[in-house]
Amino acid sequence: MIGAGHAGLAVSRVLTERSIDHLVIERGEVANSWRRERWDSLRLLTPNWASRLPGYPYTGADPDGFMSMPEVIGHIASFAAAASAPVRTHTNVTSVRRVDHGYQVGTERGEIRCRCVVLASGAANIARVPQLRRAVPEQIDCLTAFDYHNPARLPPGGVLIVGASATGVQLADEIQRSGRRVTLAVGEHVRLPRSYRGRDVLWWMEHSGVWGQRYDEIDDLERARRLPSPQLVGTPEHSTLDLNVLQAAGVEIVGRLAAIRDGRALFSGGLRNQFALADLKMHRLLETFDGWARQRALDVDVAAPERFEPTRAPAAARLSLDLRSGEIRSIVWATGFHPDYRWLEVPVLDRKGELRHDGGVVVDSPGMYVIGLPVLRRRKSTFILGAEDDARDLVGHLAGYLARGEPSA
Ligand SMILES: Cc1cc2nc3c(=O)[nH]c(=O)nc-3n(C[C@H](O)[C@H](O)[C@H](O)COP(=O)(O)OP(=O)(O)OC[C@H]3O[C@@H](n4cnc5c(N)ncnc54)[C@H](O)[C@@H]3O)c2cc1C
Asked: Among 12, 13, 27, which is best to mutate for testing ligand 1, by the most ligand atoms less than 8 A from CB?
């Protein structure tokens, strides 16, 4: 197993249940991504009840609250200890090669031979930054979510945030509150209210079965895997954080960053369409929840259906911004993440560098598995809550493979 995040540890726990001998190799410490790669104020956007791991439910006093980073680290580290996970920390994997009857895993502390490899090294190792970054004038500081810690560490002056998914809206809110001017460039996004009919929106996702929808039941799987993360934040107030809230707080909304020419950022003019689409999709999802509640005769337990006001389009959104004028001093690229497989010396990546897998079973490389990627086997796969079902399915497949004693290549 490569990686001791929650996903790798979930697989480890299920392997232990089935008495399958294994080792978890981790370049840092358990929950390394949460220790090293997140900003200071981040809280999970999933409620505490959704931090359930195999055999390890959340048992604290606040199931509807949202964990801070120290709490997430504590939760995952306690799970590792409770599961007696055999983790070898501070061991970076530098290569994985196919050899007779299995794989050879190269690490900075020696080679390991194994029949099977599970890649649990994370979906968000590298920040995805568009090529147009190269055209940003020198006087502007560029950061990704990995470089950002808190507003005080930004250079003084205005901030352009590119991307309005979970990371972008959360950083826009925090930086605007710190007293800086924030401009937010908005492309395709997923709008969600924090609460719906008196329950957390993720309660609806889980109980209505939407989160559990399997990858082989989804019409456009490729698209589902590319969907941006929802505009949600976990706060003690359980507040919604959408573009209306941000505009009311003073954040300037502009269209998708389409180009940078001669020091000018050029924004797309399609904001109204983006808003209409996100509003439509949100309301369709809420209708799905309503249909499910009606079917289950749950209407007595939850509040009446709600509909939310459309996203307000700014009267005249700017179409360009002079990055040399001094108005903007830093750009935060909140444009997503991707995994890092540079150490994988097995031909399992497609032309785009993405791992070819069928629900986590790596294609054309028997005995190789992956976990923790978006919509790997279910819509909830990338969330902590999604790890258990995926881990059980994959370990079931892996146990069958070992039992058959098939050669690996
Ligand atoms: C900003 C952000 C916020 C998120 N918020 C939530 C949330 O609120 N709720 C939720 O459920 N999910 C959330 N997620 C999604 C998800 O939980 C994370 O992506 C999660 O970290 C994925 O778990 P994982 O175990 O697959 O990967 P990771 O936690 O990234 O673990 C992978 C591990 O592999 C190790 N590793 C990587 N490469 C190597 C190597 N070559 N050799 C050895 N070790 C290696 C890493 O050090 C790391 O410890 C968030 C993700 C991000 C990026």
From this structure: 27
